[in-house]
Amino acid sequence: MNTSKTIVAGVAATAVMSVVAMFVAPMMGMPKMDFGHMLGTGNPMMAMPYAAGWMIHFVVGIVMALVFAAVVRGRLPGNSIVQGVLYALVIFLMAQLLVMPMMGNGVFSGGNMQLIMGSLIGHVVFGAVLGAVVGKS
Prior knowledge:
The chain is mainly alpha-helical. It contains five helices and no strands.
């Protein structure tokens, strides 16, 4: 595993996911997902500065990239992009079953199909970018 390249992949995948969540999702009729607010100022468990929410989001993306490259890559079927998407589907399930309830949104976003679809699309984008960048190493 090329650690530096994997960190770059995590940052890139998280950045693209964030652009989709903040700007593209609303154009598709889905709610804007502002991770700085969700994990920072709007965090019901421990409110913190807006910038801290964004930092947490990117740190999680980097950690998920490192886990992908060190543990998951090569154990899933398909090329690296398919592997990244499959991995991201697991992350999506963890987010919907664990993180969303902790954020006060309920299991599977309380049944809000727009939030569920936005999260699914964002995670698939994350996985595709992650797999594409890590696959080049």
